Amino acid sequence: MNTRLNSLEEMEVFAVSFIKTLSKKKKEMGAFVVGLQGDLGAGKTAFTKSVAKALGVGVSVTSPTFVIEKIYKLPVRAPHAGGPENEIFSRLIHIDAYRLESGSELTSLGWEDISSDPKNIILIEWPEKV
């Protein structure tokens, strides 16, 4: 899906809609994995911040360019994640694959475990690298 957003406000509205749509999908196997593609400065991290806000993450979300991965535990009560109780997602995992050479490097991040957990939502910047 390609979506063009012209402001941070539009991105926040879209992120809420995005989370509501995902929350309606029954997921029994594996995490929701979302690849975020675009040039440097295109808004990949800004979108992740908007998704984190929609999921109730209360800490500052920054790009994991140098640490590769950041994991955010989601609150039990998230504003847009499946109603009053967050029954759909328990963790937001943000990966920036820009500095990775291949998909095999995801193994050291525990990819098999995080991608197999249906309570995880994983946003990957630069998915074409892996």
UniProtKB/TrEMBL annotation:
This is tRNA threonylcarbamoyladenosine biosynthesis protein TsaE. Its main location: cytoplasm. One of its GO terms (biological process) is tRNA threonylcarbamoyladenosine modification. Pfam families: TsaE (PF02367). Belongs to the TsaE family. The keyword GTP-binding does not apply. The keyword RNA-binding does not apply. It is found in: Cytoplasm. It comes from hydrothermal vent metagenome. Keywords: ATP-binding, Cytoplasm, Magnesium, Metal-binding, Nucleotide-binding, tRNA processing. GO terms for cellular component: cytoplasm. One of its GO terms (molecular function) is metal ion binding.
